Protein 1
Amino acid sequence: MTASRDRTNEFQSVVQLMRGRLSNGAASGAAASASEQHSQAKARLHQRSQFNQLARRVGADLKSTCAKVEKLALLAKRQSLFDDRVPEIQELTYIVRQDLNALNQAIGSLQEVSRNGQSQFQQQQQQQSRTHSNSVVLALQTQLANMSDRFRNVLETRTETLKQNAARREQFSATSSTVDLLAKPSLLAQDDELHRTSSDVAIDMSGAEANWRRQQQALLDQNEDYLNSRADTMRNIEQTMVDLGQIFQQLATIVREQDEMVQRIDASVDQTTINVEGAHAELLKFFKTVSSNRRLMLKVFGVLIVFFVLFVVFLS
Amino acid sequence: MDFTGKLIVERSQRCNRSKVREQAYICHCYIRGDYLAGICISDDEYPDRVAQTLLNNILDEFTKEYPASSWSSLQPGQVQFKQLESDLARYQDPKQADAMMRIQSEIDETKGILSQTMDSLLQRGEKLDDLVARSDALSAQSKAFYQTAKKTNRCCTLL
């Protein structure tokens, strides 16, 4: 019989590891082992894997929300007078806000988990893992703070573009539409407050506040109908004016072409006048020649006399 | 009418514009951020936008005349607001009162006039074409006439 090594302990630790990975959050793992150290180690692993998974999830959510904020920034920058994508932007804003809330809550719970997990165990052995979890939570919080800062900037750029649009609309119409700016800055001011407080510490957002903000969103949409109709009318007017401009342009081109034709006509008629004048003069000369030339008369009579003489000579 | 107005204002929310159908009329309602509300009752065909613009203007003028601090001390029925009547008289015809609709109608008129102008311009072009051809022919014939006259004058020496 060969010497056998007792690897029970290793086997049991491996089993605990696998069990801890499989049944995360389930309390069934605690019942399997008897020894205090094993249960402690298992619970520790259990807590650690839970913490890690939660942190991973929070990181993934953070990344997706970051992508949404970037898209929102792009949309807000591209706002022009004709290309309004207001419902999309509002939807996106709403979604991003929800995500930020959820992330806040998740990071808060993460902190709780890490703090609770640590309090049960021997402090000395957990020093490194505690600092590790603390740094993980801190990193997630800073990322969340950066993203909420970017979100706030995007909202500010959006108000800027809206103000510019309103100013351009005022140039075209006499009525001043100052009302539409009142509601938006108030919503943004609230956003600013919220994000400023949330960027330092992960706070717990109450459900009532989120509801109230959702209501504000709905009110803003109703206001948007009136503003949208105004915007549509203004767009029509602008389009008509552009059409009018084009018509005028074509008018000018046609008139210019006709100007050339008129000049041709003018030249022809002048030429005709000259020709007719010349011919008239010639005729006058001819008439003068015919009517008052003595030479001619002499010639005519001479011819007559010659014929007469010939006639007489032939007869005699 | 008063009762309906009060009911609608109580049911509506702040910073909100709404439109309620009441038998044969439509009641436009607008509640501003500082809780000042305006109601405009009109028939079916009055454009919504113009009604809301009217409410905007009237609320602004009202605020100018009676600042917000004096609202709690005003008694209903005692408030004199002369501009209301003149505004109402003006807004009877939405096409004239609302700047945007006025501009729209004027622009449409201008467009019609411009298309007429284009037509007459094209006719003018045709006539000018005709004139060009005829004046060319005239010039050629007068030239021939001149040549003939010259020739006639020259050969008088024959005879």
Protein 2
Amino acid sequence: MSLLAKLRYQFMVKGVGAALLRLERWRSARRLRTRPPGRDAPFGPPLATSPWLKQLIAGHYLSGRYSTGARPVAWVTSGGPVEFLVALGYHVHYPENHGAVCGIRRVAERLCERAEDAGYGRDICSYARTDFGTVLGGATPVGRLPRPDLLLCCNNICQTVLHWYRVLADHYRVPLLLIDTPFLYRQAHDHEVEYVKRQLDQAVVVAERVAGRSLAPSRLEQAARLSKEAVELWARVLAAARARPAPISAFDAFIHMAPIVEMRGERFTVEYYRALLDELERRRQQGIAAVPGESKRLLWDNLPIWYRVRWLATWLAERGVALVASTYTHAWGELAPLMDSRRPLESAARVYLHPILNRSTGDKLRTIQQLAGDYSVDGVLLHSDRSCKPYSVGQLDQQKLLGRKLGIPALVMEADHNDPRVFSEAQTEARLQAFLEMLAG
Amino acid sequence: MLDIPSRRQVMEEQHQAGGRVAAVFPIHYPRALLQAHGFLPIEVWGPPGTDVGEADAHLQSYVCDIVRRGLGFVLAGGLRDCDCLLVPHGCDSLQGLGSILLDFHHPGLPVLTFYLARGEGPAALDFTVAELAGLSQALADISGRPLDEQAWNRHLEIEVAAEAALARLWRERRQLELDNAELYRLLRCRNYLAADRFRELLDKVLDRHRGAAPGQKAILLGGIVAEPVGLLEVIDRAGGLVVGDAGCNLGRRLYRAVDDEPDPARRQARRLLGGPPDATRGAAPSRIAEHLLEQAAGSGARALVVTNPKFCEPELFVLPEVTRLLEAAGLRVLVLELELSRDLPAAAANRLEAFLETL
Ligand code: SF4
Ligand code: SF4
């Protein structure tokens, strides 16, 4: 770490940057307040906390931009145990979240092509291709990514991330910490929990060495506590959509989930979700709907189609359909009961073994069934994501079982979360139309 | 033609001798443990040519052929004569396959799983030992017989001897008069023959088929599995000589002997964890390339031909960097994506022939 980089970081991120972002948030909030009612049709009024979310995300990338040399930087998979890194002062960068930003901003295709030109086939996950495209010099909407000092890969979402991070480790020649989380075909066994716990212990040692400081137990406990609080709040934010009409949609949640993925363990994340929850409670009391005239409610499975989130949200809302829940956003809230900040590493072993993608296809079906009941949905949209086999394999059976055994109609939609070249708007629209007609009976 | 017993024959003999048969999906699993429990492992790599019609109703089109045909085979009753099915955790697709078989399909025989640790060091070793204990218990539950530890040690020795014979075969490849198609017909029976019978067969071939090998252009064969059969025929016609295998099906399962370890569970675990670098176990591209270069240097290979089913993510991730590193070191690389059909498509055959011509 260099003194100059630290000074630059303080000045650009904590000083000028923070002030500008505060100003921008204030301006956007004012714009929102003065917006004429109905301007956002077919949606309800936008969430007043949105400018705050923008500030958090922009602040996060700004911090990343100036972190090189000022703070240790870790690149982490989205399901990775991050609390000890936060406690050690790392700036944590999530290539998957960055991939989503590139998807929403419609630059993922260009970045994927860049990776493909370097030999990475179109059949690998489009998040990985987006990341490789960026690493190979492709322009990103966030400006510049910090170079990693450490890579942390937890394969509790897929094995894909392990292959991906091996490529990154070879490229950057930095240590790669692997937290190998055996897939849970059934309930977790003691040897699986113990294995993860031991890897976490070892990971802390390497992360300390790279950061050049030791992990203070009190800081770890604090990060774990803040992480748990944020996860609990996030679960309550999502649960707000159980109300009829839902004050928040799953599309909103796709966007508002950024802090719970990449800013866990931070106080500002807790504060932000508390404010969002308060706002949702107010909206619920006032009967403010995410989709005015909500007539049908649907559940989403798998990653969003990032480059068509807005299109799909509009298309559904115009027909009075609210997407009220998703297994994807739910995944970051459902594990709160397993988190114990007094035993941060022990409980982390259990928590990080249990994300939905590390559990069986039958378990996922039960989760869908549970959510369908909790959120009173009329049907389920299963996004068959060409890029994401762990999420998608099993959906064809899940669809049949949902329909035949549980009486919940489900539609499988073929797409890809970040690669628009495999998405057909006409086909999707036709299938959705037929599905809605079927729901209307 | 070599006299090689067929899969069916071997299964019947196993049952007649009072033994059991375990169908096993790819890739890494404790062969000796299964044998110690009286189960003969019969591997299911596809199989080529299996109708995928029924599997299509359960798996998306972007899942690889090994998994799709494997499921097709299961659903078509292909495991009728097996006593259990083991699905090792090789990749996201195999993980999904194991999971849907357990949760949704219930194929009429016990389905077992085995997680191959991707980590390293003592934690991964202890985990694997415990994972083996769980698998052993499941096998004992099926057979009704407890594990015989001595038998486990014995089978580990037999496996090591079979691998040593295989390594010898590659060393002496140039003095074997077998063409590539015939050689792979022999090697493929490693997927279903007991290790001692496989070794006997290799020894016999090594004794009886001495002579100059037919091809000249020395290559390594890599990727997931050397299929379809037509691939080897094209290599033969073009004067290629496969002098080493770096594929998942064969070369990446030449484990270390670990003969300093008296405890069979730890020995089995150390063998599984210490295999050659393999994309499916999460090895780094640089390590894979390094290993391939050693293999090429040791065998005199001048090129690597990689054959993979489409949609094989583990391979797709490592190949760009591995190819770059190998080519920088002077080893030519050809990558073919192939379906598990019986014949090699004409376009692939042309590419392969053209590639071999340039050697
Ligand atoms: S999208 Fe799926 S395959 Fe890609 S990194 Fe995420 S979980 Fe893994
Ligand atoms: S071919 Fe590749 S994707 Fe298919 S089962 Fe084998 S390792 Fe998995």
Protein 3
Amino acid sequence: MLPAECSRRLVAELRDALDSCAERQRQLEQSLRVSRRLLRVWEPAETPAPEPTLGPEINEEAPSSACPPSPQDLKELELLTQALEKAVRVRKGLSKAGEGVKVPSLKSGSASTATKASAPPSTSRCTGSRAPETKPPRGVHHPWVPAKDLPGHRLLLVGDGAHMGQGAGANKTEAGLRDQQIVPQAASQVPEAFTLKDKGALLRLPEAFRKAASQNARLWAQLSSMQTGDSADAAAAAATAKTQFLQKMQTAAGLPGSMLSTAEVGRLQKACSMLRLRMREELTADPKDWMQEYRSLLTLEGLQALAGQCLRRLQELRSAVVEQPQGLWAEGAPRAALPCGGGADPVWSPQLLLYSSTQELQTLAALRLRVAMLDQQVHLEKVLMAELLPLLREQEPLGRPWLALCRAAHCLLCEGGQHFLTVLQDESADRLSPP
Amino acid sequence: MGRRRRRRPDPADAARALPEAIAALSRTLPAAPSPEIFRRAKFDRPEAAPALWRLLFRVLSPLPADGALASLALEAQARWVKSALRSQGYPRRALVQLPDEGSQGGRELLLALAWLLARGPLPERLLTQSHVRLGDEMPVCEALASPGLPAPGVEAEGCVDIRHLQWLTGKLRLRWRNLMAGQQEQCALLGKIHSYTRGCHSDRSLGHLSVTETELLRDPEGGRQLLQLLETENARLEAALEWRRRELVFWQWMDTVLDACSPEDSPPMFLPRIPEPEAGVAGLLARELQALQEELREAAEARRAAWQATVGGHGPEWRAARRALQAAVAQDLAALQRSWEQDEGRARPHGPHRLVRTEARVPGGPGLRAAEVTEALRAREACLEAVLCQLQGQCRQELARLAGARPGLIWVPPPTR
């Protein structure tokens, strides 16, 4: 058994690591849920009254809000219905022209993949409902009802054409089944259920959102330029006033100012890792001529000097820390929440990461996680070393408990907790060795 | 709006300036109390204190406020704020001495807030933290996930067996594996969504929609909420801009607040230094730096020795070349040093980037390329693996030494994989 303090610290560290992992997992699962749902058939967000069978199946997350369709929506729907009627007429014409018509589908090449809506019921419904309905149909709040500027019917034709290709072998999805269930009550609605794959390119962001988003970008840009362009008088005066205020606070203060501030420690940590990175570069490089050799030598010596400087600075800071007697400050000061790199830009600015294939993205993401995991592992290794090695050194190596501890420590420290070594007691050696 | 006023300052203007500045501050900070509270705080009125404690808590906590944090009792929040301020180097002792139950000290709290505002771009940082992300974001570099607040339910555990630690380690490994598998799936889904929505975005440089944007189209209710968040953020951004324009008068006012406080006693006589636990962050770092220095020393000495052995063979051009090399290396190292000394790491972009799927191979266009980031990550991966290996090697040596002190034992290492 490990002593209490040591136990507490180690368990706390491991728990932290587990918690941060769990948090990532939680976020990932949420993203997965959302993404999976987007790639399935989209359910309409509202359930109008006369269709009770649909109630529980509709999107359980968003509360279905029944709001009457606006005149605009009705108008659009009318346009849409007319377009569909035309589409049906043209489609009939096309089907007469021949089965082998190649219709460019929207995204994926094959028409057979456009199986989401079942063709036969949709056709029948389409022909059945010529007149625009006044009852709020299912699809009315689909914002992807094409805006007037889109050549809506042409695109729909393409979509419909894609459905042509499938015959009786249509895979009916749940949406298709549902459609069939409600056929008797069906209002005239968009017959094909929406999938991102087929009709993703039709989507358009709503106007209000676009406005807000562009204003958002504009305001951030303004804020950013205000940060960097500090030449304005007002800004300069404010900066001076702030510095003076801080100084005044310091001199009127009751506590010593120099503290082992988390920022300083962060900076030194960064220094350490940058030095190490650079050292690795130098050590793995292969000098081709004596000049490179000499340069490498100078660099290593320089790095050594810098490391020494950092160490001295750290030691200075630590010795300057005057801890307040316990009880004055809350227990457990919050650990440094270092932002990425310790020096993140305070003002957000749009930054893009461009990728060209799913493979590339997956590689990137996997690497990122691996680096995070390694980072955590290194940290845990250091903590374990700091706690366990002294313990082993102190204890008298008597008997089994120490051996067991040693073996377990070896497993944790040297094998990442994965493999154990075996300890054999050599009886014969004991007997032969001098007393 | 930006036109500079040239007329003589109107006294009515001056009288309005401070309340407007404070109003702007109140509008831009999250969960900030009304401007009236600020004024009351100057006069140390009791109703000001709780509101300011909560504000400080909100402002200092590294994670955006969620239900769990916000529901912490005022007392707990006050204690946490004190601790957080101290760890940032806050100089005033009076704050520490305020009662935890949070009913007093409006003026001190106001000073603390002003101190935080003076030290850095606080409103901007908070806005960045809570910025509504419209794209699919991927952080480019990973910082060690910060534990943030100590979990309220943490009990002081008794002694544990080392096997418990082994079990926890195994659990951790499993979690990472699951995480990685899930991540791969998510990337595949993202790739699909991005390619299916190509051509939809009004912003040509983006080209396709993100999950957030597509989701708002699928779910209009969610879309309305998102829009609301965006509009709130816009309001806060405008308030931040206004604050920046008007803040001078606030600082002039804070001077008066500081003067109203009685000066604190000089620092107490030498306090006994409680040594920081060796496993503290600084302790670890010190050991790391020491180890690093040692490694560098060994490597440098070896090379220096090798160099001395061959130096005789170099011609007269040696002296000039040497000077040039020394200068070059000095510059190199100075740049390296700058990279951690300066606060802004502008050389490498940090933070989350919006993922954009594109076929374009425009070099020098805006945005990072995935290939570059991958390369950088590989380098970092290699470095970390080396560090881990080296640490494990160190442990192996140490344990072997300890075990070797005890004769009669044979250590059979596990088979190398």
Protein 4
Amino acid sequence: MYNRSVTCTVNGKKRTFMIDVRSSLSDMLRGEAGLDSIKHGCDVGECGACTVLIDGKPFNSCIYLAVWAEGKTILTLEGLSTTQGTISDIQQAFIDEGAVQCGFCTPGFIMASIPIIESDIPASRDEIKRQIAGNLCRCTGYEHIVDAIEKTQKKRIAERTR
Amino acid sequence: MKIIGSSPDRVDAFDKVTGKAKYTSDLLPPHALEAKVLHSTIANGWVREFDLSEAWKVEGVVDIVTCFDVPDIQYPTAGHPWSNVPAKQDISDRKLLNTRVRCYSDDIAAVIAETELAAIEAVRKIKVVYEELPVILDVKESLANTAFPLHEERPDNIVNKTSYEIGDFEEAIKEKGLTRISGTYDCPVVSHCHIEPANSFAYKEAGKIVIVSGTQIPHLVRRMVGQALGVEWGKIRVIKPYLGGGFGNRQDALTEPLNAYLTTRVGGRPVRLAYTREETFECTRTRHAMTFDLTTYVRKDGSFAARELTVYSNQGGYASHGHALAANAANAFRMMYPVGAIRGKAITAYTNMPTAGAMRAYGIPQVAFALESHIDDISKETGLDPLLLRTKNMMRLGYVDGPTTITCHSTGLAECIEKGEEHLDYSRKRLAYADQSGPIRRGVGMAIFCYKTGVYPISLETSAVRMILNQDGSMQVQVGATEIGQGADTVWVMMTAETVGVTLDKVHLVSKQDTDVTPYDTGAYGSRQTYVSGMAVKKTAESMKRKILEYAALMTNKDPMDLDIVDNKIVRKNTDIVLITVKDVAMESCYSLTNSNHIAVEETHHCSDNTYAFGVCFTEIEVDIPLCQIKILDIINVHDSGRIINQTTARGQVHGGMSMGLGYGLYEYHKFDPKTGRMLNGNLLDYKLMTPLDTPTLHAAFVETDDPTGPYGNKSLGEPPTIPIAPAIRNAVLNATGVSINSNPLHPERLFDSFVEAGLIKQRSEHV
């Protein structure tokens, strides 16, 4: 076993963690930072429940070594709410559209949807499905999840062009 | 009704979109020990000895337990209510760890270590000497080959067999002018694939064994852990937090009994037993593979004179829910088209396959695939319209099923069919697509189903609920049945608010079950929660309302019969005249120096009725014959689930069920090595789960009936949406190509074989 430190920005704060070099990013963030929104569904990058943004791009944190996070900027679901607890529009859309059932895949889906809703290029429903195709849900049939993402993207584009 | 039928947000949605919702692994105490199970690498035989010497050398190992160490107790795992009648009790056929190996990846030893890595490493270093027996994966082979029965208590390998006959079958088939159609239909082993893998942790506290697990059935797991360990049931405590999907897999005791035992081996220190995704596939439960032989004698007018079913159900190594699923399938065959003479025979046999258990709709997706495919085969043979065959023979209002007495109290099936037909323009397209040529062809297909609500009268249906009035006029609600993603908590809050007369924000539902404090309910299964547990919620809410009004009557010098609760206020009945508020009653009843009377109620509803939900699927597809691929162009489910309690969550249930049905129809099945019995695709890469990209637009519609037995006119909805999809797709392929494919899923390999056999494509005849 060999330990080393990793310094990265997590949800807007610069943090340093002492970790076993074999740790995955998901283990580090769950175990050392208490970010329990990151879920383990398969541990091998098949299900997407552990999706976080690394420098703005979605990754399966279960197959991303923690040491690779050195100097990176990481966003997890916890980072979407304000310090006071106000939630973001995409989280609200997941509530409004009924996109949540058992909730275990929900954090991963919300994180995977961030690049879509932040894009200026309107995504069709098929394009949304393509971009979230690395995330699995057994409860919803994806219909309401796509509704929530589509609605939020439209709202964001409308806000930016106002 | 103001609240029932509306679509308030789910009560758990905020916590789930913010990551605050706690699942089992989020609650793990720091420094818990980690356990890993050694699974057998043979499917049939015995463990003769272990060499643990290398495993013990791994740093961090705390204890190693083998099948020779565990209590000599056999226990059941099925999430059925226990029966005081021994003949009706679930089969007790496994130990915590098993010396007699009955399936590949059977549990034979376990390691407890300081870290997960150490546990994994130690498990790998255990050496096992087996005595092997030939592997039997097929039901008929198992029935024929009983030299070494899997369980000595059942020397013929038969878990159970049942039969029935309605009318006189042999007499009925003598009628002149009948056409006989028969077919054999096969359904494969599939998995639940809840996204949270099976996992639990256990520790001892206050002399009790506490198990934290995302189970659908906390009270039943408590009993089964007690049975497995030989410990009094009151000394077991099960805590159920949020769980990441169940679909019937967690209607079984999975990791909990062994996990409970393991903590007792280490003085009650917390021990986690978390299965990997691969273990969740191989070592929990599956949906039964079933084979159906169906025969129908049909008159020229399309009415059925006689029908016959034989179903063979593959149980795998352990009984779990056992024969109940094949029996349920055989019953539904009778109920769907209850005309003419009907006879059915169902056999469930042990094999060396992984253990099958409950999975969404409990045997009905299998029989619906067979039966609804068979109806279109009858159409193909006779030229009769498949819609006419269904509408002429299907269950009608007032039908009473002879063997079970389950009565059709309401039906919107005919309207569901009309709505689906209208959406798809089915009849016109079916004729238009009948004789196509060329490589790309279109087809339409449909299927119908009936589904009972809960398990009465086969099993006990009971549910208890507790409500406690808080000083601010809000109330705590505790329900023994579980939220498993289906939205049960939300509908119970709606029911409570509706019936008591308070607003939704005044109802605080305790989502977590803790068997030390939560009222008894058998759990989440059988699509019973809005119906059976809903009855208990309604009954308890009525008592709560009565108690509030009785106290309010004392405060206002009125007759309680003249009072009502509307929007948190006590009013004169049928008027807008506000006398006091529920909060006034709550404060006075709590703090009164002369009449303190804490308002709390607990009621049990013993349900002794049942009713049928119905539905249809209509789909239009495109088949690429050379590529052997199916594209879904349109698909709609229309459901009669009685009164819909929450429109949004109901649609969500339908979408999810349709998605699972699409997988069952198109992609999902487990492959096994015929020599070893090992599952070959037990992971989410090789087991083809529906992804967002595979999923077409899903249309969900309802025909609302008002069922007189449902607490709010409602009937089952959770499981049914998954039932009719696979046969509807299969029938659409028949319409498109003229080819009857009698096994699901309709994946490219199967389409290839079927199209070659039908002469639609030529197999390469020469291999160089």
